[in-house]
Write a structure and sequence with these properties.
By secondary structure, the chain is of the alpha/beta class. It is built from 6 helices and 7 strands; from the N terminus they run βαβαβαβαβαβαβ. Helix 4 links the parallel strand 4 and strand 5.
């Protein structure tokens, strides 16, 4: 059997990039997708070059680009076994903060982008009886004051469960990854006493490494110092 193939959106930095490094260790071939081609190319080279990892520039808010991403993955590696819909970004809290344009791009990326990834990858994951993961957040479990970002992550949490129900019987497993405060480029002022992206990457690999009859549906992971 060919080596299994792991696709990550939002793979250029933070959780996505570190998950790619962790997934490469047990032998996954990597499909790295994000808007930033230079960072993707550097990461793909770090992971061994085109025999092991490919960079696919993709704006997840464009369904045609997502379809092309999947087609490229299948043409290059022949299969898809794990898909991690991880692309997303945040906004300052407060309904008078940020611009309406920033809000629009965030909602389209965090919500529609994740839905597009699900739609684009279902046929390939059905063939492999694969695994679908989505990045939600602690903010997707409880509302944060003035946070439209929190609303987008509530949508992702609901989307993961909706996908799990819809895909029941296909053999596809579905996991929602829900990080707490994590030290990533997401923040302008980097947090202290936070999780490291590798903490989240190890949680992702825990879910995908379970035997086929085990479906870890949610992993909520906070730093010990985070009270809520």
């Amino acid at each position: 059997m060919p080596d299994p193939v792991f696709l990550i959106t939002g793979a250029s930095t933070g959780i996505g990039a570190q998950t790619a490094r962790r997934a490469a260790e047990p032998g996954y071939r990597m499909v790295l997708a994000a808007r930033s081609k230079d960072k993707l190319d550097t990461l793909a080279e770090e992971l061994g070059g085109p025999d092991y990892a490919i960079a696919v520039p993709c704006d997840v808010t464009d369904f045609e680009q997502q379809e092309a991403m999947v087609a490229t993955a299948l043409e290059h590696f022949g299969r898809l076994d794990v898909v991690f819909a991880n692309a997303g970004f945040g906004a300052a809290r407060g309904f008078l903060k940020e611009t309406p344009e920033h809000w629009r791009e965030m909602v389209l990326t965090n919500v529609l982008g994740a839905a597009y990834t699900i739609r684009a990858t279902i046929p390939a994951l059905t063939q492999s009886k694969g695994h679908l993961l989505l990045t939600s957040s602690v903010a997707g479990r409880r509302p944060l004051s003035g946070s439209l970002y929190s609303a987008t992550k509530h949508a992702v949490t609901a989307m993961a469960e909706a996908a799990r129900q819809d895909l029941h019987g296909t053999g596809i497993r579905v996991t929602s990854i829900e990080p707490g405060m994590t030290d990533t480029p997401f923040f302008d002022n980097r947090p202290t006493d936070a999780l490291d992206p590798d903490d989240i990457a190890r949680a992702v690999l825990y879910a995908v490494s379970q035997p086929p009859h085990v479906d870890v549906n949610e992993i909520l992971i906070r730093p010990t110092s985070q009270p809520a």
